[in-house]
Records
---
Amino acid sequence: MQIKPEHWYCGFRTKEIDSEKLNEIFEQVLLDAKITIVGSHVCNYEGGGDGFTLIFFLGESHLAITVYPECGETFIELSCCNQEMFDNFVAIVRSRNLGYGLVFSKV
């Protein structure tokens, strides 16, 4: 019998564009949601703006934070294979008013 993997996805926006604040805020959200952080990496873009992407590599998938400073906005996406941890993350984001335009789905 083959097990079919399940993933839950959410995406939302925030007006915060400071890399250190975003790293601090979302590292804590992941820890509070009991999601396993394996590592992280920042990719700075050159020649097309001052944006960057911060990726948290998770034991349960990944969190990507892409900053568009020229627009004053950040887009955050979580992909997670553990529904309980995913639900915890979404609840924390909502309770702390960390973003807007939250969309989510099971894929």
Note: Helices lie at 19-32, 83-95.
---
Amino acid sequence: MKRGRFAPSPTGALHLGSAAAALFSAARARALGGAHVLRMEDIDGPREVPGAAEAIVHLFSESKRAADLPPPNAPDMNPVGVEANRRNLEVAIDCVHRLGMIPRRFSVEELLA
């Protein structure tokens, strides 16, 4: 299955150009028989604006054309950010280090910088 995604950073109000890109990505994913998901970027903590992530999720949950989000009461389907996958990222970093593909074990923060 094809999957499109939109991964905004919650650093303020959603930009009109970002919303247009999300709509295009959603239309393309659906045209290919797939789904479109919202993944919140949570890697820029110092610039994150309180309430911005919730506002973006609300906007997308109100627009059936923008993202295939489930009802808000489906906790396992909330937008996924880096922090929710930190352990998976650490395991992946360890694997590529053990395979000799990187010279040292990087932290998640270094990898995303």
Note: Residues 82-113 form one domain.
